[in-house]
Amino acid sequence: MNLKALPVALALVIALAFAAGCGGSDDTSSDPTVTQGVPTVPDVSVDPADIAPYPDDVKAEFLKNCDATSGGEKSMCACILDAFETTLPIDLYNKINDPNAQEIAPAMPKATQDAANQCVEDASKSKG
After folding, report:
1. What separation in angstroms does the CA of 128 have from each of 66, 75, 111, 122?
2. N or C: which end of the chain has fewer CB within 10 A?
């Protein structure tokens, strides 16, 4: 497995942290949205049978990079990793983070984005 710096996941963390500081939207429309270059579409379906814990090397790399880009928000990073593991199959995670050069990164399921947003919101509340 080729582990890169996981730029999309980290962009998501940064975008989520920014969104937490600026307030969110209650828009529940089915129109696609883009968060820091990550398309999100509410109807992306994920087979629950495909959900499984990520390999230890993927977890370690995500946590290392998240910690570095979030200013040391270890609990928030762990929460986001858990959100990813419970809503985003590893194959889709890998495709989002390292799409083929000829492909556009696949959409992030709305459930994943919502769960990660909740982590950021909880972290923001615990600071305040």
Report:
1. 21, 15, 26, 10
2. C
Q: Where are the domains of the chain?
A: 1-18+53-128
pLDDT of 56 over the 50 cut: yes
Half-sphere exposure of 25 (CA within 13 A, CB side): 8
Q: Return the higher-pLDDT residue of 56 and 96.
A: 56
Cα–Cα distances in Å, from 38 out to 12, 56, 81, 107? Answer: 7, 24, 17, 7
Is the confidence at residue 36, as pLDDT, over 90? no
Nearest Cα neighbor of 114 from 96, 75, 90, 88 is: 88
Tell me the pTM: 0.67
Q: Which residue has the higher pLDDT, 115 or 33?
A: 115
- Within 10 angstroms of residue 13's Cβ, the number of other Cβ atoms is 25
Burial code (b: 16+ CB inside 10 Å, e: under 16) for 18-40 equals: ebbeeeeeeeeeeeebebeebeb
Is residue 73 within 8 Å of residue 67, measured between CB atoms? yes
Q: Using N-to-C axis directions, what is the helix angle for 74-87 and 56-70, rounded to 10°?
A: 140
CB 9 within 8 A of CB 97: yes
